[in-house]
Amino acid sequence: MRRFDLLSRYVSAGPSGPAVRELRPARDQVRPLSKKQQVITGAVMLWMLCGMILLVGCAAKPAPEPQRHPSPMREEPRPAVSRPQPSPAPAPSPAPAPPTARPYTVLGQTYHPLATADGFAEEGIASWYGPQFHAKRTASGEVYNMYDLTAAHRVLPMQTKIRVTNLENGKSVVLRVNDRGPFVGNRVVDLSYKAAQELDVIRPGTAPVRVEALGRWPGGIPGRFFVQVGSYTQRENAARQVEDMRRNGYPGSRMVQAVINGQNFWRVQVGEFNNLDKAVSVQQELVRRSPGVFVIAD
Prior knowledge:
Blueprint: H1 2-13, H2 17-23, H3 35-60, E1 104-106, E2 109-111, E3 121-129, E4 150-152, E5 160-166, E6 172-179, E7 187-192, H4 193-198, E8 206-216, E9 222-232, H5 235-247, E10 254-260, E11 263-275, H6 276-286, E12 294-297
Parallel strand pairs: 3-7, 4-6
Antiparallel strand pairs: 1-2, 3-8, 4-7, 5-6, 5-8, 9-11, 9-12, 10-11
Helix pairs in contact: 1-2
């Protein structure tokens, strides 16, 4: 009702100054808010304030720009690739060992000849061999001469120079190894007849000795030596090999007939050589083609 009274007063008075003043209610006419209204009004204002803060915050935070370039992918480690290397040239095959340097078996026992005699020494029993083997072939291909200062040993290299000392009387002698043996019991060296005489071993037959290697026998053993490269039952085959050896730089090659148990054999031999070292040198050359070649003394 109060609003209508004020409005009627305004209309009746017209647009003058006093009428306007009457539109403003007096201070004592404003009704104060109740506590419930104050709580509700405060809550509304608080919600409005929170909403404005959220809107301002959202507007202030720019949206993240999409990445223009994709992040690089991490590469997996690649296995190292080695460049192909040229294959090394194959090493030349070593020449086969001469027959006297290869393992051999006697009476069920296998022996392995030493590659070198350096530092070799041993003690044991010495024996000797004489007339029953005189003029027969030794393991080195030489013909055994019981009057030479030579010896047989099971593993020392051929042409090794050794000193043999009789431990009972102190006598010693220097010998050349050119054969294999002995193959009985605890014997370590077989002496030639001449060597046994020098050491006073002829009468007892055996004696305790010390054997020491002194290196390779110096110089060449004089004589007539050949290198045997083949043996055939057909003469024509032997003749062809003789011609082949002559064409390959061995003009002294020859063919020798031998009869063994009623069977004819034709042996092909290269030579002649006036000392053993030369014959051994040629044998080592030929052993590449014919592993079974060996030196003989004529």
